[in-house]
Write a structure and sequence with these properties.
The complex is a heterodimer of chains A (242) and B (344).
Chain A: E1 8-11, E2 16-20, H1 27-42, E3 48-53, E4 57-62, H2 69-80, E5 91-98, H3 107-114, H4 118-127, E6 130-135, E7 142-145, E8 160-163, E9 167-171, E10 174-178, E11 182-184, E12 187-191, E13 212-218, H5 220-231, E14 238-241
Parallel strand pairs in A: 5-13
Antiparallel strand pairs in A: 1-2, 2-4, 3-4, 5-14, 6-7, 6-13, 7-10, 8-11, 9-10, 9-12
Chain B: E1 7-15, E2 20-22, H1 42-51, E3 60-63, E4 68-73, E5 77-90, E6 93-95, E7 99-103, E8 108-124, E9 126-129, E10 158-163, E11 172-175, E12 185-190, H2 199-207, E13 210-216, E14 220-224, E15 239-240, E16 245-247, E17 255-257, E18 264-265, E19 269-273, H3 275-283, E20 289-294, H4 297-312, E21 316-319, H5 327-333
Parallel strand pairs in B: 12-20
Antiparallel strand pairs in B: 1-4, 1-10, 2-3, 3-8, 4-8, 5-6, 5-7, 5-8, 7-11, 9-10, 11-21, 12-19, 13-14, 13-20, 14-17, 15-18, 16-17, 16-19
Classes of the chains: A alpha+beta (242), B alpha+beta (344).
């Protein structure tokens, strides 16, 4: 583990400060990121604009005409002293996921590379509980840690053609769910009917960093039914407190 | 919806690719992966807005070198145009590139790529009547957020504005010398991952020279120049991306991440362009050659303060009369008799 108790303060230009707790994907590092993020959101220092938690660092966007870099570093440094352990809201999401070959475009390819049968790969994927390390890249997209060892697959050397919205993918030893149609360097092993981003919903973004996710296998008929319900604004994932 | 008495419309007659509605950006949702978007040249965007009495961050039309042609419907509109040295004309009569004018119903304004610059901004005095997405009109076409149904402006679009300003009696030039910016030196703050590069590579990075690649758009400007090598590999665990971040992927060719950039990424970011120089770079056309200079945070903030002070002093307008036009400008037009004077 490469947890730095004393974080590094790095500059991303004169209007963004990176508070870096480590350089690896690690729950203990991510805990510190989310703890600082929670503390900053509860009491935003003057001059700060927004906070972006990632696997291993927190980016603080600020207005340097309102707060100086040195003042901000001192304020954040003060908050880090005695920062409470991050416990999160403990939300566990059960995301319906269809692994039918009609939708799981890369499941056989990925299973073949990993030396697994399709059913073994699905069983491994549905058995695990994943931690949402961060959201990013596209609106509502979640990055998942906790992929079982036998499912850890490298990213593709070159991206594949665009996948549909709701792609459940693995790559680079991690998992992701992408609510937009886009090309990817990952392997699409399933499709969720849930909309992680829906502008018209009160909660436009369903899942946030620190939440836990499990995948609930559904058949093609259920997928079609839930897709229609999700399109009408219903949240089809199930949610419970840990 | 019935048009209010004070509502008038911009009717788009023709649009090249890349004309979009942009306000100051969709802020506050980076943590959910939502790109801010917003203007490529925020200074020019603010200048156009302030010139018609709008807030600096009001929604305006960003026009690319693809150009735009439009008219006013159901009323006249007071508009300002500012940005690069675009070629403008009103009913066929040429205009200087930074103007405020009254666009009468049916009059045709044409905006074409001119001698320099990649973007210009057309601000309408008043308020755009259009639903916002997450509090903003800023268009991000890759995710379909904002603007006109999440897309670029196309011929046939009709944009309603609640008109707020009294019509200008004449055509005025916007006195904004700060829009004539050189692109020879672009200032950067090193980091956040400059420690992924050895000292000689940092030196090569700063020395350049760099040229803006033809492969450039609202998301990223690719730079042509020396190939950089990484000292510690090129895969990092993804972290946040600020506007102006210069990432160096495995092929060693730097990429400047612009307004439509993704929120997070996994390549080392050797440096970040300072805020006041981002618009200057954005205006550079493919092939433009420049060098980089590393500056301190304090110097970058001082440059920001200067820029803010420029705008705080207010925008000066000068009625357009022949005496204000340089002979060079008039010769360039070769249409002296066609120039609109204050008396018309």
């Amino acid at each position: 583990m490469t947890l730095q108790i004393e974080p590094r303060f790095l500059d991303a230009g004169e209007a963004a400060l990176v508070v870096e707790f480590g350089d690896t994907v690690d729950p203990a590092i991510n805990d510190r990121v989310l703890a600082l993020d929670a503390a900053l959101r509860a009491d935003p220092p003057s001059g700060t604009c927004e906070f972006v938690p990632t696997y291993r660092s927190l980016m603080i966007h600020y207005d340097p005409l309102q707060v100086s870099r040195d003042t901000l570093v001192a304020t954040v440094g003060g908050m880090l002293i005695g920062l409470a352990e991050w416990r999160g809201e403990g939300t566990v999401w059960s995301l319906p996921c269809c692994y039918d070959p009609a939708l799981a475009e890369d499941l056989d390819e990925a299973a073949n590379i990993l030396g697994l049968t399709r059913d073994e790969a699905v069983a491994l994927h549905t058995k695990a509980t994943y931690r949402v390390y961060m959201c990013g890249f596209t609106p509502g997209q979640i990055y998942l840690g906790g992929v079982p060892e036998p499912l850890k697959i490298s990213r593709r050397a070159t991206p594949r053609s665009p996948h549909p919205a709701g792609a459940v993918s693995i790559g680079g030893g991690l998992g992701t769910v992408v609510p937009f149609v886009m090309p990817t360097g990952w392997y699409v092993i399933g499709l969720t009917p849930e909309r992680l981003y829906a502008a018209e919903r009160n909660d436009a973004f369903l899942i946030q960093a620190g939440d836990l996710v499990q995948f609930d296998p559904i058949d093609l008929a259920t997928f079609r039914n839930l897709t229609q319900r999700a399109a009408s604004g219903e949240i089809v994932a199930r949610k419970r407190s840990a | 919806m019935m048009a209010a008495a004070s509502e008038a419309f911009v009717r788009v007659l023709a649009a090249g690719p890349g004309a979009t509605l942009q306000d100051a950006g969709r802020h506050g949702y980076l943590r959910f992966g939502v790109t801010a978007a917003g203007p490529m040249d925020p200074l020019a965007h603010a200048t156009a807005n302030l010139a018609v009495g709008n807030p600096a961050g009001a929604t305006a039309i960003e026009v690319s070198v693809g150009g735009l042609e439009l008219t006013a419907e159901l009323g006249s509109l007071t508009i300002a145009i500012a940005g690069g040295e675009f070629a403008l004309s009103l009913d066929g009569r040429p205009l200087p590139p930074a103007v405020v004018l009254n666009l009468e119903e049916g009059a045709v304004l044409k905006i074409r790529a001119g001698s320099a610059g990649s973007w210009c901004y057309l601000a309408v005095a008043g308020r755009l009547v259009m639903p916002k997405v997450l509090g903003s009109h800023a268009t991000h076409t890759r995710t379909g957020f904002g603007g006109v149904n999440g897309r670029a402006i196309i011929a046939g679009d009709r944009l309603g504005f609640e008109v707020s300003a009294v019509s200008q009696p004449s055509i005025s030039t916007i006195v904004a010398p700060w829009l004539n910016r050189r692109v020879d030196i672009i200032r950067v703050v090193l980091g956040p991952q400059h420690d992924y590069f050895a000292d000689d590579q940092i030196a090569a990075f700063l020395a350049g020279p760099w040229a803006v690649s033809a492969r450039s758009d609202r998301m990223a400007y690719f730079l042509d120049g020396p190939r950089l090598t990484h000292a510690r590999g090129y895969n990092i665990v993804s972290d946040g991306i600020a506007m102006g971040a210069i990432q160096v992927p495995g092929d060693g060719r730097p990429i400047v991440l612009m307004a439509d950039r993704q929120s997070t990424g996994g390549y080392p970011k050797i440096a970040t362009i300072i805020g006041p120089d981002l618009g200057r770079l954005a205006q550079a056309r493919p092939g433009t050659v420049f060098r980089l200079a590393a500056v301190s945070i304090d110097a970058a903030v001082a440059a920001r303060r200067e820029e803010a002070a420029l705008l705080a002093r207010g925008i000066v307008l000068e009625p357009l009369v022949r005496s204000h036009l340089s002979s060079e400008f008039l010769l360039g037009l070769n249409l002296i008799d066609g120039v609109v004077g204050a008396e018309t």
